[in-house]
Specification:
About 35% of the residues lie in helices and about 20% in strands. The chain is of the alpha/beta class. Among the domains are: about 60-75 and about 195-220; about 85-185, Cupredoxins -  blue copper proteins (Immunoglobulin-like, Sandwich), CATH 2.60.40.420. The strands form two sheets. A four-stranded mixed β-sheet has the order 2-1-4-6, with no helix packed on it. Strand 7 and strand 8 (about 175-185) form a beta hairpin.
Length: about 230
Amino acid sequence: MRALAPKTNRLSMDQSQSALRESVVSIQRPHFHAADLCIDTSVDAPGEPSMTTSVRRLLLATVAIAVAASLVAAGPARAADPTFSLTVNDPAGWGPWDDLRNPGPTLSVDLGDNVTLLLNASDGSGNHRWFIDYDNDTTQGAGEPASPNFAGPTQISWNFTADRNGTFLYRDRFATNLTGTIEVLVAGAAPAQDNTWILVGVFLAIVAGVMVLFVFRDRFAQKPGKK
């Protein structure tokens, strides 16, 4: 009868060799962990917007604010042949019927425009006459555009060509202390404007940018540290 001891020894030797091979492979095989690769494996809570969504919303809001501020600052484009309605009252001044002031509103036109004025008066003090006082001497001189006389609430329509560029005062011929400003601009030049809305837009854009930085900072602070 053949002894079983040699077979048992061979099995033990095979198992030892197999274990040795696995140990060598295990030593040579690199080990990777999510923390080593800086992979954020955290999951947002249900219903909580992701960081990408929050940042996208903030950036879209910033763009919208910048566009709105630009449109407000730019203002509406002037017509090629503008028309203005002006009421005069001595001593209240010039302006729309319910918003008279002295000095009156600024009129902005382009050089060469055919300007139409709709003129009337809301007082009973007699005649009025609108004119541009180019030399600011308080009197109507030769070459200075001047409307016909008008009085009372009935409007008259009168037009002239803006043929001299610059910024001038307009006056009432019969009450020269009632003034306003007319700007005759070279085509393509922008009238002077209030920059308040531009500054507001820049401020809001900066605030939105700071909010984006805080979102990134808070998200990174919530990541689990390496172990």
